[in-house]
């Protein structure tokens, strides 16, 4: 055996000879100097070793130089429990429970950027305490279809709303020395065939609808990492997509951070080497469940990458560039000596989760039955599986192990008194991760329904807490929903309950829109997303009027699935069609999809095609009411060159309790040479008003807000003419209007 003794002696001698601290270890030195210094000391093998996983959720550092590993964790609603080094099993630690924050779609429903900042700060503190360097979130894929199993992880259907909301999350999270990983870049708008579906979309829809929130997260938020999506665009996988990563992300937006694959999203060494990918994670797993014989050294960006460089088939500079970006990330996070220590499930975190949950709940309808007065001592029957189910389990990678979880039944019981509250399950929804292929026997559902209906007849009020859950084929990663209706016979159950007792409040939980055939027959509907640890307390407080609801829908709720744009063009548009030949992944042959609705996503479609939604984007009621006065413009005209004007609208609380209204500004181009949506969201502000109080809300309008993306010229363009400003409380309610001319 060859002795390593001489090597060790040489290393020790070299170390003692250089007493001075190397530049890369000096936290006061400029980060770019540290990066170059570290790089100059590294071997090619060490650079390549930075570019791929060493375990399910970590990548190696440079042990010889004292450069630490990078640890990552899902995201985005809390810090995921520890996963095994080498497979997807839970590591069964006892110190990894967390605060579950409301789902991102709930955050979007608050329309309150201050809460987004609080979210980033608090979840970042938990990530920091758990010693994570990268939190895999937030997600900003646009809500294109209510069938997408992952909509709850995103921020709704509108690029302006998602852009405004994502920025403070990223900024505050990263103040903890924890990188945001904005995902899934890009066009990952469904789970069906997500691994290899090839999305075809116009450049206009891409730039106007699908990219803005990513751009805001990168440019305004300063995100340190971005996660490539699983799907393909222009026949190339997003994780090594030349146009998305090199041309747009780095070229047009100047992104200086690292691109991380989605887990198993890399498929080709040469493309990965050349097209802007930095860190490859999760490869060679079979459907995320079982291990393969491959080692981390077999990853595309491991030995095969090294071999391509050694053969001269890709330049060594590709490894330098990747290592530079990864070192920069390490200095910003793992080697950031000034980061705070963080904290876990603190009272402040619970308070933030509660505040976000409170403001996220959307009152869709109220004939006056709400709020329910706890002092009235009414006999309340709570019905529904979601009243007791722990909804932080399941759902895929966003699963969380919570330290505490207040269910809706817990919350309602605490507020209305145990003596006044009864519970009937009403329907069975299966254990967590229940598969639709094992339906609950009809006899079980029948008896649960009969029991609930019988109890409903004797109650003063019924509170129904159903909706979707995190099981497969519902609000869950990996598959889309199989239909628009509520599962487990809930529509039938609700109809039977209404007949037994018309004093019923629907307080469903769901990360998606769903059909509400009973909407006209129930007096009140509350819509909540997954609200995490404090969710039941938020729901109970809104029911009791201790919190006045102020959430607004971040997506439209169409009457029927066919009323949704993505579903108006047949299977080519959703879910896409399999091809005759091409790559086969998970048994599916190169599926293709074209976004036929183009930029008419969500309310843009409902407005422009005059297909009213049941509940429109931006809709949400309060226990008080608001009136809009006449808007006043600072000028009647503006020019396209750097000019701007303001519009001010007085908003009055006309009711008898304090409440908050989200004042929304939409702008429409009255006449254009290209198809434009009737109107588009270009501003919003949440204002809290005392009874009788009037406040002037002012928005600034700039020429950029009037522009559309001219694909031919690859530039944003405005056209002179008349524009209408629509101001109001939802996309379907804009009583205050004003016009101006762009010269
Ligand atoms: C998901 C990502 C997640 C990753 C790691 C993937 O399946 O798409 O969102 O961050 O797994 O768990």
Model description:
The chain has 3 domains: 5-332, Glycoside hydrolase, family 3, N-terminal domain (TIM Barrel, Alpha-Beta Barrel), CATH 3.20.20.300; 361-544, Glycoside hydrolase family 3 C-terminal domain (Rossmann fold), CATH 3.40.50; 624-742, Immunoglobulins (Immunoglobulin-like). It has 18 helices and 31 strands. Strand 18 and strand 19 (588-589) form a beta hairpin. The termini are far apart. The model has no long low-confidence stretch (mean pLDDT 95). Bound molecules: beta-D-glucopyranose (BGC).
Topology readout:
Layout: H1 5-17, H2 31-40, H3 44-49, E1 58-59, E2 70-73, H4 104-110, H5 113-129, E3 134-135, H6 159-174, E4 179-185, E5 198-200, H7 203-210, H8 212-219, E6 225-228, E7 232-233, E8 236-237, H9 242-252, E9 258-260, H10 269-274, E10 285-286, E11 290-291, H11 303-310, H12 317-332, H13 347-360, E12 362-366, E13 380-383, H14 408-416, E14 421-424, H15 442-457, E15 461-464, H16 490-500, E16 504-509, E17 524-528, H17 535-544, E18 584-585, E19 588-589, E20 592-594, H18 603-608, E21 626-628, E22 632-633, E23 637-638, E24 645-653, E25 659-669, E26 680-689, E27 694-701, E28 708-710, E29 715-717, E30 721-728, E31 736-742
Parallel strand pairs: 2-3, 3-4, 4-6, 5-7, 5-20, 6-9, 13-14, 13-15, 15-16, 16-17, 23-31
Antiparallel strand pairs: 1-2, 7-8, 10-11, 12-17, 18-19, 21-24, 22-24, 24-27, 25-26, 25-30, 28-29, 30-31
């Amino acid at each position: 055996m060859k002795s390593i003794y001489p090597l060790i002696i040489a290393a020790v001698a070299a170390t003692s000879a250089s007493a001075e601290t190397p530049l890369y270890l000096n936290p006061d030195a400029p980060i770019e100097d540290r990066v170059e210094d570290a790089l100059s000391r590294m071997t090619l093998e060490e650079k390549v070793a930075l570019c791929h996983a060493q375990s399910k959720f970590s990548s190696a550092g440079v042990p010889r130089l004292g450069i630490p590993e990078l640890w990552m964790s899902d995201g985005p609603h809390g810090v995921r429990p520890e996963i095994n080094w080498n497979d997807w099993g839970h590591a069964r630690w006892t110190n990894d429970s967390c605060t579950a924050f409301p789902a991102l779609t709930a955050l979007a429903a608050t329309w309150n950027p201050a809460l987004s900042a609080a979210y980033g700060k608090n979840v970042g503190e938990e990530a920091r305490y758990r010693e994570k360097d990268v939190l895999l979130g937030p997600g900003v894929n646009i809500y294109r279809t209510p069938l997408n199993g992952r909509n709850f992880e995103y921020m709704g259907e509108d690029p302006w709303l998602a852009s405004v909301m994502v920025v403070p999350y990223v900024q505050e999270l990263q103040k903890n020395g924890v990188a945001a990983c904005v995902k899934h870049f890009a066009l990952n708008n469904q789970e069906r065939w997500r691994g290899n579906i090839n999305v075809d979309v116009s450049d206009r829809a891409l730039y106007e609808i699908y990219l803005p929130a990513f751009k805001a997260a990168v440019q305004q938020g300063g995100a340190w990492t971005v996660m490539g999506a699983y799907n393909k665009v222009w026949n190339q996988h997003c994780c090594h997509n030349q146009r998305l990563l090199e041309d747009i992300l780095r070229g047009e937006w100047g992104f200086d951070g690292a691109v991380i694959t989605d887990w198993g999203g890399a498929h080709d060494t040469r493309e990965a080497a050349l097209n802007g990918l930095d860190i490859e994670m999760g490869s060679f797993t079979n459907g995320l469940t079982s291990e393969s014989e491959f080692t981390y050294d077999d990853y595309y960006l491991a030995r095969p990458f090294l071999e391509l460089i050694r053969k001269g088939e890709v330049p060594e500079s590709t490894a330098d560039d990747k290592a530079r970006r990864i070192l920069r990330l390490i200095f910003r996070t793992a080697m950031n000596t000034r980061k705070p220590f963080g904290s876990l499930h603190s009272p402040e975190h619970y308070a933030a989760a509660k505040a976000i949950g409170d403001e996220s709940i959307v009152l869709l309808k109220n004939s006056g039955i709400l709020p329910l007065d706890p002092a009235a001592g009414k006999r309340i029957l709570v019905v529904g599986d979601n009243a007791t189910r722990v909804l932080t389990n399941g759902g895929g990678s966003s699963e969380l192990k919570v330290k505490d979880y207040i269910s809706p039944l817990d919350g309602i019981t605490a507020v209305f008194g145990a003596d006044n509250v009864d519970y009937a399950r009403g329907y069975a929804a299966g254990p967590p991760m229940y598969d639709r292929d094992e339906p609950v026997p009809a006899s079980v559902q029948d008896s649960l329904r009969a029991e609930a209906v019988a109890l409903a007849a004797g109650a003063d009020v019924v509170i129904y807490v159903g909706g979707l859950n995190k099981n497969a084929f519902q609000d869950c990663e990996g598959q889309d929903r199989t239909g628009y209706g509520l599962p487990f016979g809930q529509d039938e159950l609700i109809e039977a309950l209404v007949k037994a007792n018309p004093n019923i409040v629907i307080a469903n939980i769901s990360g998606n829109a769903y059909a509400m055939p009973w909407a006209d027959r129930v007096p009140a509907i509350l819509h909540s997303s997954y609200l995490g640890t404090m969710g039941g307390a938020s729901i109970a407080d809104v029911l009791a009027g201790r919190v006045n609801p102020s959430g607004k829908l971040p997506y439209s709720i169409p009457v029927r699935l066919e009323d949704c744009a993505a579903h108006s063009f047949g299977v080519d548009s959703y879910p896409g069609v399999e091809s005759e030949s091409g790559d086969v992944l998970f048994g599916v042959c190169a599926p293709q999809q074209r976004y036929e609705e183009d930029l008419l996503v969500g309310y843009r479609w409902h407005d422009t095609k005059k297909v009213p939604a049941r509940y429109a984007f931006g809709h949400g009621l309060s226990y008080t009411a608001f009136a809009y006065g006449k808007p006043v413009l600072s000028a009647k005209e503006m020019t396209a060159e750097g000019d701007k004007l303001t519009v001010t609208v007085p908003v009055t609380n006309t009711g008898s309790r304090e409440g908050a209204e989200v004042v929304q500004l939409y702008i429409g181009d009255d006449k254009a040479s290209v198809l434009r949506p009737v109107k588009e969201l270009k501003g919003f502000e949440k204002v809290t008003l005392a009874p009788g109080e009037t406040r002037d809300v002012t928005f600034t309008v700039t020429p950029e807000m009037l522009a559309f993306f001219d694909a031919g010229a690859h530039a944003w363009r405005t056209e002179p003419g008349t524009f209408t400003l629509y101001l109001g409380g939802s996309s379907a309610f804009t009583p205050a209007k004003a016009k101006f001319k762009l010269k």
